[in-house]
Every structure is written in C-alpha cells, then in structure tokens.
Amino acid sequence: MSDTGMADQLRRRSAAVMRWRGWEMAVWAAIWAALFVLPSHAALFNEIAILALFAVSLDLVLGYAGIVSLGHAAFFGVGAYGAALFAKHVGADPLTGLAVGTALGALLGALTSPMIVRGTDLTRLMVTLGIALVLLELANKFDGLTGGADGLQGVVMGPIVVPFVGRFEFDLAARTASVYSLGVLFVVFVVLRRLVHTPFGVSLQALRDNRLRVSAIGLSVQGRLAAVYTLAAALAGASGALLAQTTGFASLDVFEFHRSADVLLALVIGGAGWLWGGLIGAIAFKLMHDVISAWTAQYWNFWIGLILVVLMLVGRERLFSPRRWFKRGAGS
Prior knowledge:
This protein is mainly α. It contains 16 helices and two strands.
C-alpha cells in the first residue's frame, strides 16, 4: 500500500472512531431529559456533574497517562478558593470566575508537574498527597483570606447571561446551578472525546503501556506527561470552581484526603481509561451515596465499601454481564 493510501486509511479510521455512536447520544439525551423531568433533584444533578468533571480530569492522568495520584484534591481546592475569592472581592460573573479557577488549577499543575513526571508510582503517590496536605495547612493558616476552619462565606454569584436567551439567576433549588454545571461538563466531555483520539491522546495511551518504546521512537515522554497533568489540573480546578459557585461556600474540606478518595472510587466504579468511566462512576457513586445514606446514615460507608470489594473480586466485566457470569460459572 502506498503512503497516500495508508494516510487515507488512517484518516478514515480516525474519523470512524471520533464519530458519535447512537448509544452515546442516547445517554446524553437521557441525562438532559432527566434534569428537566426531575427538577426536585436538581441539587443531586449538580453534585453528579461536578464529581463527573472531577473524575474525568483524574481519568486523563490515571487512565490515559498512567500517573497515579492521591492528591488530586489540591487542584480542586485551588479552583474552589480561587473562584470564591474572585466572586467575593473582584467580580460576581460566573464564567469569569470559572476561568479564574481553571487557570489557577492549570498554574498549580504546571508548577508541580516536574515533581510528578519523574520517579516511581510510589513517589507520585506521596508527592501528590503531600501537595494537597500542604495546601490544606496553608489555607488553614491564612484564615484572614480563606476563612480558615469556618470556611469562606458570603460568596454571591451574579446571573448567567446567555446571549439571545436571557439572564438566569442562581436559585435555592439549584435548577440554574445544575444546568450550568452539566453544561460545562458536556462541553468538556465533547472536547476531551476528540482530544483522546488525536495523535496526542493516542501517544498518552502508548506512554501508559510502554514508556521506553515511546521514548525510543523520539517522542518527548516528560513533555507529554507534563502537558496532560496540567490539563487535568485545569479541569479539576474548574470542577472546584463550580462547587464554590453553585454552593456559595468554600471550606478546607475541598483539600482533604476524602475528596481525592471519593473521585478515585468513582473512577474505579466506572472504569479508568475511557471518558465514560468518570461519568458513569460519578452517577453510580452519588446515587449509591444518596440512597444508602438515606437508608442507613451511620453505616453507608460499610455498604459502599462492600460493593467495591465485590466489584474488585468478581470483576466489572463479569459482574455486569450475566451471560459471561453463567458461562464462566459453568466452565469452572
């Protein structure tokens, strides 16, 4: 086959992969429809959208690039405090505040990426966790700016102005907030879905599988890892900014370890290495949390932990495929 024919074949294959499938459009249509059909659950939809964006950002570094992290909440917290401080002292425009939180997350990601792209997985775990803990203590120490343990209160957001449509005020029922957060998640998802199928996205998966081989063909391993780490940090900052804007509050909780653990659990449930894993995992985790905590508020951690143990022991593919379950059971 000639070089021209091979190039045409690669372009056709790439176009086929990037093309939206029917089930993908159906899922997104169902999510948007559910948001308007169930307005009483708007606050839950808002939480799911924020967690899903956070999980997708972690999937970029963990599922696609193979960078393990226990401190992804560092970027989440920086974005939350950045957007909250901007709204309180500079301007109340939501989109500008979202851009500020995203930029601060990207800046922190760029500054810390040299410590992440080198070393072993254990080193990365400790460094990422350490960065989050350091920022937690700094936020607690500078309580005159951040509010310390009491949190940063009095964050009031202005309306979202959509040209040719109108102005939408944030309401107590979280209807505007849920549409806003879900809209940001959808835009990010569409962009990332295309990005992961570009040569850059494919090179990230190659890095995850075999870094020596990627380095041997002349690609910059550290440059790509730093780039995707900065991008993931920016998206985590955006999710933190959404939380602060839609709740009107930012506290030390955004830096704590459980924030990183929750998003990691959501990604484990949904599956790492494909963007839908973050979205599906966030929906499943939040629904389980909401249902189980309403059933038994004291022991909901036990039941979620039990579900995760079963998921890991049985396997996601076997658990969600009855035909494969019975086939393997008969053959064992």
